[in-house]
Amino acid sequence: MTEISVYIPAYNVARFLPRSIESVFGQSLAPAEVLVVDDGSTDNSAEIAGSYHTVTVVRHESNRGLAAARNTAFRSARCMPTALPIGLGSPILHRTSVILT
Fold first, then answer.
1. pLDDT score recorded for residue 82
2. What's the predicted TM-score (pTM) here?
3. Residue 37 has what pLDDT?
4. Short-list 16, 25, 26, 2, CA closest to 95
5. What is the mean pLDDT of each run of 10 residues along the chain (101 residues)?
6. Which residues, 6+ apart, have CB-to-CB distance to 97 below 8 Å?
7. Rounded-to-integer distance, Cα 90 and Cα 95, Å
8. Beta-strand (E) ranges in the chain?
9. Structural domains present in the chain
């Protein structure tokens, strides 16, 4: 069976992040891992993501943009990733993506 890693690049999205993370966990196929790449947020996005014990938070010290957040997710994923973008409904989130490994 294919393992799925989900990454959520996040920048100052504290109010949307719980809904996005819970949506990932509510899917019929459970992910092998969930990565939230906090792209230098100045709100409490990283702390919210970290409150989910099954979420791995990777932080950028400063905002480096969507491409850097995605690259960080690819480097941090457990296996060799392939990306399949999906949206979780918030235009403020960069985009949530699934990594099929």
1. 45
2. 0.79
3. 92
4. 16
5. 82 92 86 91 96 95 91 82 45 50 48
6. 6, 7, 8, 9, 70, 73, 83, 84, 85, 86
7. 8
8. 4-10, 33-39, 55-60, 83-86, 96-100
9. 4-100 (3.90.550.10)
